[in-house]
Amino acid sequence: MNSSNENNTKPIKRHETIAQFSREHHFGLLLVWKIKQGIKKSISPERISNYVLCFYEQDLKQHFSNEEKILFVHLPEASPLRIQAMQEHEKIYSLIEMIKNEKNSYPLLTRFSEMLDNHIRFEERTLFSHIQEVVPEKNLLEYQVNHIDNKQVDNDWDDHFWETKN
């Protein structure tokens, strides 16, 4: 077999620092799914919004902060990928503020879930691969990240609206 073909089909192994952020993204995508389930089941937008705000406070806020302090800083400030990631974080922060002020809006929850979904996919498909390519491994190893116990959010939350039968 041609070794160059093997290299082209071999999946990229994520550096452990980046892999942990990817694992946290799984829970962000679950949040997107839960919002969609809630809307599909006509769950009160206030119930969904309350969960979104709890998840943000207990998970997303710290996750974004860690990304900004640990990963994004390795890219030049003028890097288009860094700028895009930071702008998307800002848009998500703005949507959270809007949800705090308007908890009865399916369209707002839909916008939030779409933005979060697109943002996570951008980071996974583009940004993280780029960071891993351009940042020396020793720089990524400098950080011991205190990652979030994502399962704790649901353990502390009594209203599992996404499990409600129609």
Can you tell me about this structure?
There is one protein chain. This protein starts with a helix and ends in a 10-residue tail after the last helix. By secondary structure, it is mainly alpha-helical. The chain has one domain (15-163). The protein has helices at 3-9, 16-40, 45-71, 80-101, 106-134, 137-141, 151-156. The longest helix has 29 residues, at 106-134. α2 packs antiparallel against α3 (45-71), α3 (45-71) runs antiparallel to α4 (80-101) and α4 (80-101) runs antiparallel to α5 (106-134). The chain is elongated, with a radius of gyration of 18 Å.
Give the structure's gist in a few sentences.
The chain is mainly α. The chain has helices at residues 3-9, 16-40, 45-71, 80-101, 106-134, 137-141, 151-156.
Q: Which stretches are low in confidence, meaning pLDDT under 50 for 5 or more residues running?
A: 1-7
Domains, number: 1
> How many β-strand stretches?
0
Structural class: mainly alpha
SSE topology string: HHHHHHH
Name the beta content range.
Answer: under 5%
Radius of gyration: 18 Å
Largest sheet: none
Shape from CA axes? elongated
Question: End-to-end span in angstroms?
Answer: 54 Å
The DSSP helix count reads: 7
The amount of helix comes to over 70%
Give the overall average pLDDT.
87
